Amino acid sequence: MCEFIINIASTILGGILLTLILFLLNEYVFRKKNFTGEWDVELTTHQTDYKKYQHMKLYYRVHILQKGNELTGSGEKLKEILSDGKEMTYSEKSTVAINGYYERKYLGKSRIYLSLIEKGAKREYRTFYVLEISNKSKLKGEFSSTAANSKGEVTLIRHNNF
Questions:
Q1: What are the domain boundaries of the chain?
Q2: What pTM value is reported for the model?
Q3: Which CATH architecture fits 37-161?
Q4: Rounded to an integer, what distance in angstroms lies between the CA atom of residue 49 and that of residue 128?
Q5: pLDDT score recorded for residue 69
Q6: In angstroms, rounded to a whole number, what is the distance separating the alpha carbons of residues 157 and 137?
Q7: What are 32-45's pLDDT values in tens digits?
Q8: pLDDT confidence of 10, banded at 50, 70, 90?
Q9: At 110, is the secondary structure helix, strand, or coil?
């Protein structure tokens, strides 16, 4: 009977110890990254149905709020630079609504998926980003947009921490 009680107590103690170790690993070694803050976004168009947009660069400033793995936010287009070097800035900003999530992986590369809806002067555009974490202040990846059926690369650089 005494051996039985010792086995039960050691099993419970082992479970508590394992739970504590996993908690500490999750909180201090494999910490969840925080993406809440202000980000500068640069898109470079590589493929498009509209030749004028080929190699165009677009610049946005966005604000992202993270709740768990869910990401939401908003932003606005700041300027665009066409392939011929002509720069357009916006006095009336195009606004952007953002929804997405953070796919946290322990053994592989974690990714961020963002869906953006931009209210342009003539119509709404939808853009999708798939981003990998370069470091805590930089995200890089690809985008696909309904604006002239364009695709290319996107970089987000943290402008401000919260």
A1: 1-31, 37-161
A2: 0.81
A3: Beta Barrel (2.40)
A4: 17
A5: 93
A6: 6
A7: 789 999 999 999 99
A8: confident
A9: coil
